[in-house]
Amino acid sequence: xxxxxxxVLAYSGGLDTSVIIRxxxxxxxxxxxxxxxxxxxxxxxxxxxxxxKKTGASKLYISDLREEFVxxxxxxxxxxxALYEGYYLLGTSLARPIIAKRQIEIARAEGTNxxxxxxxxxxxxxxxxxxxYYALMPDVQIIxxxxxxxxxxxxxxxxxxxxxxxxxxxxxxxxxxxxxxxxHCSYEGGILEDPWAEPPKDMFLxxxxxxxxxDQPEYVEIGFEAGNPVSIDGLRxxxxxxxxxxxxxAGRHGVGRVDMVENRFVGIKSRGVYETPGGTLLYHxxxxxxxxxxxxxxxxxxxxxxxxxxxxxYNGFWFAPERRMLQRAIDEMQKxxxxxxxxxxxxxxxxxxxxxxxxxxxRPDIATFDEMKATYNQADAEGFIRLNALRFTSGPKxxxxxxxxEFE
Length: 408
Fold this sequence. Notes:
five-stranded antiparallel β-sheet, Argininosuccinate synthetase, chain A, domain 2
């Protein structure tokens, strides 16, 4: 690595990145420009300016990326019905590329191609950050302290802070790490590393315990246009306000909690606990409107792409051409997904109870079992079935003959 004069650090104000500011200055003798992305952390951002400067940063950028995050990252993932390994709505995975994108923009403005982050060498975030760096600045130089230094535990980081008079409030009392944005809050590490241990009840920030949720269900209607949520209970809202309101509604009913052991890109199994109340509500509402507005084969094609799309996002390939290609195809097939879904929220459950659309493909006159009209000739089904069975009856014993031992 060539001479380092200035580094732009993705800074959260937490223990790791506070140590990293001082460590970069000592190891490389460089100026450190700190940068924090506002993705909806709220009051967590308030003390960052003072903390960054006291720790040694020359300046701090705080970029409000909330609108772009929801509009250009969260909503595209909802249109894609993205769900990693059947559970995870990708809250952290979607946040990392937009954070890294803005970091590269700041590096260019600061006249440097050197960036740094606080992700460990065992996790997914290092991949997500760095793939984005390379995609947007091919000649980037990356400093990943966790892959270089000899500080290998939280205790050692706290001791480093004490030795260097770094102002952090971290203690050993909080037995897990967390990451929050407008879409979700994630929890991992510490006591959660035991996959048999139930998360503590007081850990969650965005949702009440389902057992403590209201004893009466709440109904909510979500309106969509071309696959994007645009209204709640008839009130049109811009993206940030809509997701915020969805979080409030679903959160008070304990909706959106997930506890899973996932497969990290680097090959490690990791236990993650997530709460995504508003995202869960929007996910199910979107699927409900799709059910009546999308052609069967179009919907089935998209269903087949969900694992691939979610894997690309989870692994950090947001800016890869294959993810962008998939997105364009998905967005094209989402054009008719316009309508309203009605959901029932109760004690942690989010249940679809209604859907309607001017683009609906649902035909009650054909689907009904009550009155057999001339719109559907039931006798046609015989030929349909015979044609589909043709390959089963081609051989001397039929295709089923090779399986006859299973039925003896």
